[in-house]
Amino acid sequence: MSLKRNIMIAGVGGQGTVLASKLVARAAMDAGLAVRTSETIGMAQRGGSVVSHVRVSDSAIASPVLTPGSADTLIGFEPGEAVRCLRYLRPGGCIVSNAQTVAPASAALTRTEYSGEAMLGRLRDCGARLVVVDGDALCAEIGSLKALNVVLLGAAAAAGALDFTLEQLEAAIRATVRPKFVDLNIRALHAGARA
Amino acid sequence: MGNEAIALGAIAAGVGVVTGYPGTPSSEILLTVSKRNPGGIHVEWSVNEKVALEVAAGASYAGARTMVTMKQVGLNVAADPLLSLAYIGVKGGMVIVVADDPGPISSQTEQDTRTFALFAKLPVFDPASPEEAYAMMADAFDLSERYGTPVIFRPTTRVCHGNAPVAISETLRPRAPASFVKDPKWVIFPRLSYENHIRIEQQLPVIGEEFSSYPRNSLSGEGTLAIATHGISSAYIAEALAALGDAVPAHKLLRVATPHPFPKRLAREFLEGVERVLVVEELDPVIERELQRLAGEQHLPVDVLGKGSGHIQVAGENTVDSVTRALAGFFGLPVAPAAHCAAAPEGAAEPPVRPPVLCAGCPHRASFLAVKRAMRKRKSVFCGDIGCYTLGNAKPLDMVDTCLCMGAGITVAQGLQVVEPDAVHFAFIGDSTFFHTGIPGVINAVYNQTNIVVVVLDNSTTAMTGCQPHPGTGDTMMGEIADKIDIATVLQAVGVKHVETCDPLQLEAAQAAVLRAADAAADGVAALIFKAPCIHVAPPGVTYTVDAEKCKCKICFNQLGCPAIMSVDGKASIDPALCYGCDICLQMCPFDAISTVTAETTGEVQP
To answer: Where is the Pyruvate/ketoisovalerate oxidoreductase catalytic domain positioned along the sequence (chain A) (predicted)?
Structure first.
């Protein structure tokens, strides 16, 4: 059976989408699969919307960028950012989204209330499978606000939305993350998987 | 990452000297050479692209292989040495990596470096993937050395910031030690330029002929219909053809990896028997024009379609989607829009707009606020420059009235001041940009007695591109400690009479300093250096919280635009995960509603 999985990781600059995409890519390489990823770097990093495209396949991949309707998995570090990327998700795909919102700095300007509940409602009703993760609670549990990225990867793996086992992702963490943060990230991975 | 592949390709090809100036999407190339330096490679962030190119030129004269890295607009700064060096030539292979940015995603222009190469009469390599970029570096160095010419290497953002597994060769090409041999050929004079011009014009077709046999320029398929493409668009075409499936009629496909000098023999073979060709390019229609010219020269009955005919968008980057639609139109095939999950009932909530903003705790926010508050009642114009602080244009700060290119804030302010002398003209410039192209502008203002206020936003790093060191930081890419070049001393040395340094995070003192500088600018150029480190190079302070009982006005929320401050139930609220502890909000608060919180309540924060 052939393996092809397109993953879109959506978040806000600074939330760590790049590391998440690196870990999936590492796991794919270790499994002998083809992988291409593409990142947002530069101007948009500063609190703007950021997206990582990750394509994993057992055959050659041409483009590093996803097309609309082609993502099998959408990982939202922020529910509004997940909604923004829904046009990339195929019907019947899987969304793994953090429950908590990041208020946009522009709220000061537009004075609009931003409701995470409304965003989660859209994710629920969009025709995809939805797993909501209480990122704040899990990050508090493992003692780091910065581990959200790996928590969500754990949840996505447990939901069967990544094609990699926790052991494969653990190995990817060991190969990618600086030694002093390995334990923290592995705890985050398992916390996300249990959620 | 494509940028890492380029760096490793250069190392494998025996590069000896690497120079550059940071700029998205090129910055990681030089960083990677520095990290993976096998020893013996001189790596430097030069003060600007012109300097970088000239340093590398010298090293190439002496026989070293050199690489220069920059973004596309950086090549504008390096244009002077580039065009002359094309005439003089090099001894050691020289590859100038210029990253183009279709979109543009992080740039001022959508200029095409292939067109620049055409103008400068230099060969250009245009890789389509990280793997190809790695392999092509060796070809580029070899070609440069064989023909004694600098070579341009131009990846685009999707190649630079695309990632793929790349097999790396462990063996490095040994290089003989280099030394400079004196020869009149290194001194440019009109007579020599005339002779070299003839040599270049004779040499380019020879290189073009060699490119016609270069395996990375590929020609496949048969038929009267044809597609020509380059770079990342060739990946999009592969995806689009797969999506359109068996209905796609027989066609030829040409991929051009070396657009200049154009591989004419290969292109002639491509056009033979073809009635219509669609050229799929990003940025300028370089291949399209070459094919049209060739069709004209050869009297070929072929329609060359692309940007000129409206079949391909003239601006912005291509996508698999846009290419699929273009190919479907070209082949006369139906294309169904892909089903997706974005449909929502009318009136459904949309995600908020999220433009890039200055980070929470960014000292630039404090600097802009100090100037804004101090100048509230005086006619002022605020000229910005290129860097994170361009983001000071966003409301509520709204402190960037102009922004053109690197170093232009100081000089544009002078032009405005000459026309409107009753206003105070401020020019904001970052520390790295000051060293890049800011200093000549200051000298010009002093010399021509154009009284402006130069505000140097010194955050001790090149923040926007990922915190590279510069002459003011005192560390180099060779891991050495250098004497820091002091900006205040530089300003005094070029004759600025009023030079004051202050901490923008002390709001009241900073406002007073702004007023002193504005007054001093009535009679001479005045300079104010706001010195406080970027939050990416300084540890966080304590975090702050709002006492909702005391919160009455929300001026922190309404005036600062700090991403850590939100409005919750009509009161300001600080997100402890984002607060960096700059305490500007505390200094602004007229109701003493803001105070520090202890570490236990925020949880442990780790990078």
So the answer is: 13-193
A32 token code pair? 């002998």
> Does residue B196 contact residue B88 with C-beta atoms inside 8 Å?
yes
User: What's the ipTM?
Assistant: 0.92
Rounded Cα distance, B234 and B257, in Å:
10
pLDDT, tens only, B313-364: 999 999 999 999 999 999 999 988 889 999 988 888 889 888 888 989 999 9
- Residue A144, domain CATH: 3.40.920.10
SS3 A36: strand
What the block records as the tokens of B84 is: 């002359």
Angstroms from B322 CA to nearest CA on chain A: 10
Chain-centre distance of CA A3, in angstroms? 19
Q: What average pLDDT does range A22-32 have in this prediction?
A: 96
Q: Kind and range of the H or E element at B545? A: strand B544-546
**CATH level 3 topology of B2-205:** Rossmann fold (3.40.50)
Q: How do A49-57 and A34-38 pair as beta strands?
A: antiparallel
Q: How far apart are CA B2 and CA B166, in angstroms?
A: 9
Mean pLDDT of A151-177: 96
How far apart, in whole angstroms, are the C-alpha atoms of residue B155 and residue B158?
Answer: 8
Please report, for residues B488, B491, B497, B528, B534, the alpha-carbon distance to residue B501 in angstroms, rounded to integers and kept in the order given: 7, 11, 13, 6, 16
Is A18 touching B (CB cutoff 8 A)?
no
Query: Domain count of chain A?
Result: 1
Annotate B387-439 with DSSP letters as a single string: SGGGGGGSTTT---SB--STTHHHHHHHHHHHH-TTSEEEEEEEHHHIIIIIH
Q: Are residues A66 and A4 in contact, defined by beta-carbon separation less than 8 angstroms? A: no
Out of B158, B342, B350, closest to residue A65 by CB: B158
Of the candidates B371, B494, B504, the one whose C-alpha atom is nearest the C-alpha of residue B442 is: B494
Asked if domains B2-205 and B544-602 share a fold, the reply is: no
Pairing type for strands B218-221 and B251-255 reads antiparallel
Q: Strands B571-574, B565-568: parallel, antiparallel or unpaired by DSSP?
A: antiparallel
Q: Are B452 and B458 in contact (CB under 8 A)?
A: no
| Buried b / exposed e along B559-578 (16+ C-beta atoms within 10 A) | bbbbbbbbbeeebbbbbbbb
- Minimal Cβ distance to B355: which of A48, A126, A146: A48
Q: Where are the domains of chain B?
A: 2-205, 218-331, 363-531, 544-602
Say how far apart CA A25 and CA A39 lie, in whole Å. Answer: 12
Q: Looking at residues A31-51, what average pLDDT do you find?
A: 82
CATH numeric code, B363-531: 3.40.50.970
Give, in degrees to the nearest 5, the angle at Cα A170 between A164 and A176: 105
* CB-based contact B396:B559 (threshold 8 Å): yes
Interface test with A, best of B129, B354, B467, B567 (most A CBs within 10 A): B354
Give the span between the Cα atoms of A41 and B246, in whole angstroms.
37
Residues of chain B where predicted confidence (pLDDT) is lower than 50: 599-607
Decide: helix, strand or coil at residue A33: coil
| Structure-block tokens of residue B107 | 């740039």
